[in-house]
Design a protein that fits this description.
Among the domains are: about 50 residues; about 45 residues, no CATH class. About 50% of the residues lie in helices and about 0% in strands. The chain is built from 4 helices and no strands. The chain starts with about 35 loop residues before the first helix and ends in a 13-residue tail after the last helix.
């Protein structure tokens, strides 16, 4: 007859004293300075032999996706510019809000015009009189 280990209510074995639980700190995302990114990109661009870029990435603990995104940033001129935080121009937020509002109102207007056209077609289909409205100024 074999002796089974005690089980908890959910069917798993309770933690033993020798296997104490350890709290592992949450991993923190790495950040790289603009100068470091430029340095690595310069070193990667200088690699001409097969395997040199891979060796550089292993030595620095980086991934090829880092190079890809950093090259895109460099090409767009964003390498080293701050993207987070408040916009430098206080009017930029208001302009963005007004643009979103304009797009939303344009969509509502288009939907309302479609509904009116459908109503006019239904009226003509059923032989009901259609009230003529002057054309709206689309400017």
């Amino acid at each position: 007859m074999t002796q089974s280990s005690p089980k908890s209510a959910n069917g798993t074995a309770p933690p033993t004293v020798s296997g104490a639980t350890e709290v592992v700190p949450k991993a923190k995302r790495r950040t790289f300075s603009a100068a470091y990114k430029r340095q690595i990109l310069q070193a990667a661009d200088a690699c001409h032999q097969p395997g040199q870029v891979g060796a550089l990435l292993r030595r620095e603990g980086l991934y090829s996706s880092h190079l890809t995104s950093w090259r895109r940033q460099r090409d767009r001129g964003e390498l080293g510019t701050q993207k987070r935080g408040k916009p430098a121009d206080p009017q930029a937020k208001e302009v963005a809000r007004l643009q979103r509002q304009n797009e939303r109102l344009q969509a509502q207007l288009s939907q309302a015009e479609t509904i009116i056209e459908v109503q006019k077609k239904l009226c003509t289909l059923f032989g009901l009189p259609v009230a003529e409205t002057p054309p709206a100024d689309k400017g």
